[in-house]
UniProtKB/TrEMBL annotation, chain A:
Belongs to the binding-protein-dependent transport system permease family. MalFG subfamily. InterPro entries: BP-dep_ABC_trans_perm (IPR050901), MetI-like (IPR000515), MetI-like_sf (IPR035906). This is Maltose/maltodextrin transport system permease protein MalG. The chain crosses the membrane at residues 16-38, 86-107, 119-142, 154-173, 252-273. Residues 82-273 form the ABC transmembrane type-1 domain. It is a multi-pass membrane protein. Keywords: Cell membrane, Membrane, Sugar transport, Transmembrane, Transmembrane helix, Transport. Its main location: membrane. It is found in: Cell membrane.
UniProtKB/TrEMBL annotation, chain B:
The chain crosses the membrane at residues 12-33, 73-94, 106-127, 156-184, 205-224, 267-284. It comes from Sinorhizobium medicae. The lineage of its organism: Bacteria, Pseudomonadati, Pseudomonadota, Alphaproteobacteria, Hyphomicrobiales. Residues 69-283 form the ABC transmembrane type-1 domain. This is Sugar ABC transporter permease. It is a multi-pass membrane protein. Pfam families: BPD_transp_1. Belongs to the binding-protein-dependent transport system permease family. It comes from the Bacteria.
């Protein structure tokens, strides 16, 4: 009886500890983001207040209105940055996806010499730190005169995204049984048809998430963009975020608002792909 | 006609080869060359002067460089270990949850969507000594009556940067380890239970070996872009105060664009590149070994 009771107590305590631990972890994960959102809605006076104001008295969308009302307010051309980010990210994603599709397929379906060495070689190009790569690219682009254009940024991001796209797409094609394409070919499909009508649709969701991942990489990239972009012509949002600190003081509210604008597309897209992303990274070892 | 003689995989890999060769390998060769010249952006002619290994000698005998190098290694060691442990803990916690797993898993991914620039900005805001959330909270709770200079004191600034780095990347570990936990067969754990293993023994000798490949996948992904820390540091402290948080990458950036000494910066960059490559190769090999160990079909 006694051992029974103590056992029950212990289990209840463990359960409580588990709950508290989980709650704390989630609080640490979510709180910083929520704080940014909240700060973007509060008047600057409240952000700066001493002693701190914890319960906001007034909430308004002023910061967003000021940001999108053109270059006048605050002087940060958010629309231009947003458009640049979108053009660069989308274009580079499409190209990287096409290249990654053919490369990933080769890794998943064919045996060839030095396969793992080539794979590792591809990955190593991704491991080059952005700032280190930015030095020669800066010099080359400045010489050829394509610095500060969408074109140069797109090409750079394609090269940046190809290795990881190949990794992911390789993983997705491995989940599609080889027999299916062979069966289709026996039934009279050409290899080309077998690929597009059987294998591609099956790996489709995975390929889409590889694309979204590439998009996010370009959308978030800073180290390279901060050096190869110079003006409104090609500056992307992450670089534009620093415009708010260019002055002697920092416009915290404006920065928070821009941060929210940057995170919302990323948030939405990541929700869509989360399941596929994990299974692609683990080479299909997981049924998520 | 000649094209059709190439085998299918070669043909398929060709575009990737070309892109990577032109935009990564070629520029790197160029920067390798310029690291042997005293090239300065302000004096274009200096690109054609060859000075041998003088830049490298300069770099390798420069105390400032070694301090930054040591600090980078220190930061990576602490951050990666902390991320690994916290990620494992988080994955185990979420895996144990009986309700709301889907929501928890989604929330867990939250920091992954933040670009490093945003992470840097966010923690710069939270750790601001005057208006930051952390100091406000500590003062409101009465834990301290003066403002703690999180980003102004050298050691605290490095600590704050590590916090930001760990916050942003723990998710990678947590998600992949959780994937491993979900994919794990239940029988071995039950067998261990029946055989009288303690929970710790079960974890150490049954669960952990199974999770290892997943942990290494996470490590490999992280090692591919450890240099993301550059963005965070650049925003939070920009190497300050008084270079107390200067990392290899910020030092390269400052030498190249601040002082316009491209040749010297390229020599430094090569050390940074080598560091990254050693890192990545190490974890790739670990990954391959771990995969063989569990004998899974990859």
């Amino acid at each position: 009886m006694d051992t029974n009771a103590s056992h029950r107590l212990r289990r209840r305590l463990l359960k409580a500890a588990h709950f508290v631990g989980l709650f704390l972890a989630m609080a640490v994960i979510c709180l910083p983001g929520l704080w940014i959102v909240l700060s973007s809605l509060r008047p600057t006076v409240e952000i700066m207040a001493k002693p701190p104001v914890w319960i906001p008295e007034t909430l308004s969308l002023d910061a967003y209105r000021a940001m999108f009302s053109g270059a006048g307010q605050g002087g940060v051309p958010v629309w231009d940055y947003f458009r640049n980010s979108l053009i660069v990210s989308v274009t580079s994603t499409v190209i990287a996806l096409a290249i990654g599709l053919s490369g990933g397929y080769a890794f998943a379906r064919y045996r060839f010499k030095a396969k793992s060495a080539i794979f590792l070689g591809f990955m190593l190009t991704r491991a080059v730190p952005g700032i280190a790569l930015s030095l020669p690219l800066f010099m080359l682009y400045a010489r050829t005169g394509i610095i500060d254009t969408h074109f140069s940024l797109i090409l750079t991001y394609v090269a940046l995204n190809v290795p990881f796209t190949i990794w992911l797409i390789d993983g997705f094609f491995r989940q599609v049984p080889k027999d299916l394409a062979e069966a289709a070919q026996i039934d009279g499909c050409t290899p080309w048809q077998a690929f597009w009508q059987v294998e591609f649709p099956l790996a489709g969701p995975g390929i889409a998430s590889a694309g979204i991942f590439a998009f996010l990489t370009s959308w978030n990239e800073y180290a390279l963009a901060s050096q190869i972009t110079r003006s409104v012509n090609s500056k992307t949002l992450p670089v534009g975020l620093l415009d708010y600190t260019a002055e002697f003081t920092i416009d915290w509210r404006g920065m928070c608002a821009l941060a929210v604008v940057m995170i919302v597309p990323a948030l939405t897209l990541t929700f869509i792909i989360q399941k596929h992303l994990v299974s692609g990274l683990t080479f299909g070892a997981v049924k998520g | 006609m000649k094209l059709s003689k190439l085998s299918a995989p070669t043909l398929l890999l060709l575009p990737a080869f070309i892109v990577l060769a032109v935009f990564i390998v070629l520029p790197l060769m160029f920067s390798l060359y310029s690291s042997f010249t005293p090239f300065r952006l302000t004096k274009p002619d200096t690109l054609w002067v060859f000075i041998g290994f003088r830049n490298y000698v300069n770099v390798l005998t420069n105390a400032e460089f070694w301090v930054a190098f040591g600090r980078t290694v220190l930061l990576l060691t602490i951050a990666l270990n902390a991320e690994m442990l916290l990620g494992l803990g988080l994955a185990l916690l979420v895996n144990k949850a009986t309700r709301g797993q889907r929501i928890l898993r989604t929330a867990m991914m939250f920091p992954m969507m933040f670009s490093p620039v945003l992470v840097g900005f966010q923690f710069k805001f939270l750790f601001n000594d005057n208006i930051g959330f952390v100091n406000n909270a500590l003062q409101s709770l009465g834990l301290t009556d003066r403002a703690i200079p999180w980003l102004i004191d050298g050691n605290l600034a490095l600590f704050s940067i590590i916090v930001a780095e760990v916050w942003s990347s723990t998710a990678v570990f947590a998600i992949l380890i959780l994937a491993g936990l979900l994919a794990m067969p239940k029988d071995p754990v039950e067998a261990a239970h029946v055989d009288g293993c303690t929970p710790w023994q079960t974890f150490r000798y049954v669960t952990w070996p199974y999770l290892m490949p997943f942990a290494f996948i996470a490590m490999t992904i992280r090692s591919l872009d450890v240099a993301r820390a550059y963005d965070i540091v650049k925003i939070m402290t920009d190497g300050g105060p008084a270079k107390r948080t200067e990392l290899l990458w910020t030092l390269v950036g400052r030498t190249a664009y601040g002082d316009a000494r491209m040749g010297l910066a390229n020599a430094m960059a090569y050390v940074a590149i080598l560091l990254s490559i050693v890192f990545t190769v190490y974890f790739f090999r670990k990954l391959a070994a771990a995969r063989q160990q569990i004998g899974a079909e990859w």
